[in-house]
Structures are given as structure tokens and as C-alpha cells.
From TrEMBL:
Keywords: Membrane, Transmembrane, Transmembrane helix, Transport. Residues 247-256 have a biased composition (Polar residues). The chain crosses the membrane at residues 21-43, 63-81, 88-105, 111-137, 149-170, 176-197, 297-314, 334-355, 362-380, 386-412, 424-446, 458-480. This is MFS general substrate transporter. It comes from Rickenella mellea.
Amino acid sequence: MSDIATSRSARRPWGLKWRSSVWFVTFGIATDLLVYSVIIPVVPFQLEKLRYNNVSGLTGWLLFAYSAGIVISTPLLAHLSEIYRSRWWPMMFGLVSLIGSSVMFMEAPNYLVMVIARIMQGISSSAVWIVGLALLCDTAPEQKIGQQLGLAMAGLSLGLVIAPPIGGALYDHFGFRAPFIFGIICAAADGIGRILVVERKDALKWGYDPAAAFISTGIQDGVQETSIPPPHSTLRNPDVGGEEKSSSTPTDTSCATPKLVTREVEANTSPAPIVEQPKVTLNPLGVLFALSKSSRALASILNTFIYGVVFTGLEPTLPLRMQAVWNFNPGQVGLAYVAAGIPPIFSSPLVGLYVDRHGAAWISLICLLFSLPWWLILIVRWHVGLFIASFAVAVFFMSGVVSPLTAELAAVARTIPGLGYAHIYGAFNFAYGIGCGVGPLMGGQASYSQIYDHVHQGWVAVCCITAGFVFVASVVSFCYTDEHPLLKRILNFKARRDSDEPTA
């Protein structure tokens, strides 16, 4: 008996339960955004210190370089992640690239090196977002994906909130290198977590399903639990000693109907492994063709692009606006970001929970419409409190849009054979990357920052352009979001009402 136990402990991964758990997989998005955002309030001032002219334009080019890294690396990373079915190596690649880009930016002797470092950081972001979100959807049960994506998106908001004030304070007290050293430390800590992650496909080999455990919390080991497989996967239990397993073990879980899986954890003999059969994977052109046929997917991708335009379009100009109107220094700019960024930490999880229960159609439209007027109120030059409050409310509702977008894309991935989560979040990342480039550098030299610098009432123009993009996103959401979009529901209701009316 002791020999069997020793053999099991030698083969069974240490800490399998918590290392493969949905909660452990969910958190980790914040680090990438923290390292990205830590320089937002300090780069314009550093460029001024280095005696560069046209600071807002140069800052916009740095943001464009970041988006270029995302766009260049996304298709390859998404494709390789689905072909080799491993999330671990791309995530570690992203971590190394993140640390390397931080060191390069910190020691950059000139602007060109800063641009190269920002491109590397965009490549890192591709790995974190594509592989991280795909790993989350691999692990989380289908009926809880919106909730978990909402929590992951809260990490996005958290990174955006805590990084700017930390970066501004560290820059004020310790100089330009201090924010990057802080980011490197956080990335190293995140790397430890990434090393420890056990993917669901590996946990299944030991008879443990983290998705089943997540939705069956409190049920003792050895009882039957509901398991939701990854999209279009087929799980089987191989014969043991030439005999079939009991009917409670699934032989095909490719459909969306929940199956029952028996978790064997405490048995004295090793459980029969649950093995994933090979699945058909689309090539990049096949992915593009498949997505082009889905109006639901195209709408989500377009609104992801708009989300990237809105947020990155303001990043080069917002610190300069606060400096010009209220004479803010980097530390004060960072504190303003905190005041404006705390509410969005709560919007993403709440919206994600709503999406799981009621779908994405109504909540997407509500978030977009409620954010729209506040982008225009930012024009008012009355009091800094009104400015920060308006920005906070606008960001609160706009950040709530991300959970429905990512949940919609996950739903699309489950309906198209050969389309994996890495593919669909590669499209998400690609659209966001293009938006990040168009925002700060829209139309070559007609960027937000160029508008701010060279157009009369430039800040008014920036805010109106932002509101225009949000309005377009609202129309797209109304027409195409969810399996049954609001426009389709209204038309069907009108058709039923007309058919029920008595004829003259």
C-alpha cells in the first residue's frame, strides 16, 4: 500500500487542485496592465526633461508602437497556441518579453529605443491576453464564464487604477527608473504564478476536473459532478483491463449539454486518465473566413476596436489637459487616475454576473448609452472635481462593456467547429491592438494628440470624437449583440403584434 501511495505522489502534480482551479487561473491580467500603465503619467514629463519637442505627438507614437507589437504578434501566437494545445509556453514567453521590455525602456538612451521597448511590450500583451483568456475559458464552466471574465477584466481596471499613481509618486521621489523597477518586481511575482498553473487538459489526466469542482463546491471527492468541456473537444475514458467504464463517464462531450464526470482523488490506485482526443483546428485564413460569416462575432470585434480607440485616444492628452488647466504634476495626475479608476473595478464583475444570467444584449447597450454623455461633459472647464467625476462615470460604464464582449466571443467559439478560444481572443486582441494604434495615431498625423496640439479647441474635438465612437458602438450593439439582438427582438415583436391584429 505504501509503495502505491509513493508511486501516486511521485506522478501526481503537487497542489493539483488549487493550481488548476478556476480562481487561480482567473487572476493575473492586472500585471500586464500595471506595467503598461505605470508610465502613462510620467512619459510626457520625461520627454520634456530630455528636451524633446511635440511631446504629446511623441507619446502617441509610443502608444502606437505598443499596438503595433500586439498586431504583429497576435495571429502567430493564437495559431500556435491552438495547434500545440499548450498555454504555458506562450504565457512564459509573454512574461520574459514583459520584463525585457521594461528593462529596455528603463535604460533607453533615446526615443528610438523607447519605441522598440514599447513594441516588445505589445508582444507580451498578446501572449497574456490571448493565452490568459483562452486558459480561463478552458477551465471555467460555460455557465460561469461571464462571471470569471468579469473578474479578469476587473484586473484590467485594477492595473489601470493603481499603476498611474504609483508611477507618478515613484517618479517624483526616486526618478524615472523607479516605476520600471516596481513593474519588474510585479512581473516576477506574476511569473511564479504562471509557472505553477496546471492546465485543465493536464488535470483531466489525473481524473480531476477543475470546472466540475468549481460548480460543485462543497461536494465531497468521489461523487459525480457536472463538467463543461472546452469548445468542440471530445473527452474519453480509455479501457482499463479491457473493460468499459460505467455509463457515468462520458464518451463524447462535444455538445453543450452538461455531462457527468466521476472525480477520483482519494482512491489508492491511480485514476484512469481522461484523455482529450485531437480536434480539428482552423488555419488563420479559415479563422478569418469563419468569423466573417458571424455578424455576432464581427459586432464584438468592431466594438473591441472602438473600446481600444476610446481609451488609448485619451491617454496622450488627458495628463496634458490636467497640467494645462489645473497645473497638475505627475503625482497629481496619478491620483486623478485613481479617483476616476476605482469604480470600474466593480463594473466588470457585476456586468459579467449579469451576462451569465440574462445575456449580453441589454447590458451592453445600457453601458454604452450611459457612458456617452459623460465624455461630452469632460469638455466643461469648471472645476477639477467635475472633470474627475465625469471621467470616472464614463470609464465605469465603458469598462462594463468588456465583459459582454469577451463572453460573446466565447459563445461564438463554442458554435463554430475548429474555432478555439485562442483564435477568438486572438481576434479580440488584434482588434484591440488596431484600436490602440488608431486612438493615439488616427489617420497618420491627424491623431488625438495632434488634434489636441494643433486644432483650435482641440480638447473639445477629442471629446466629441470619443463620443462619436461610443455612439457607433451603441448602434452596433443594438443591432447585433447576443444570439437574439434587441433589434431582432423588436422586429419579431412587431411582426407578431401585426399578425394578431384583426383584419378589416
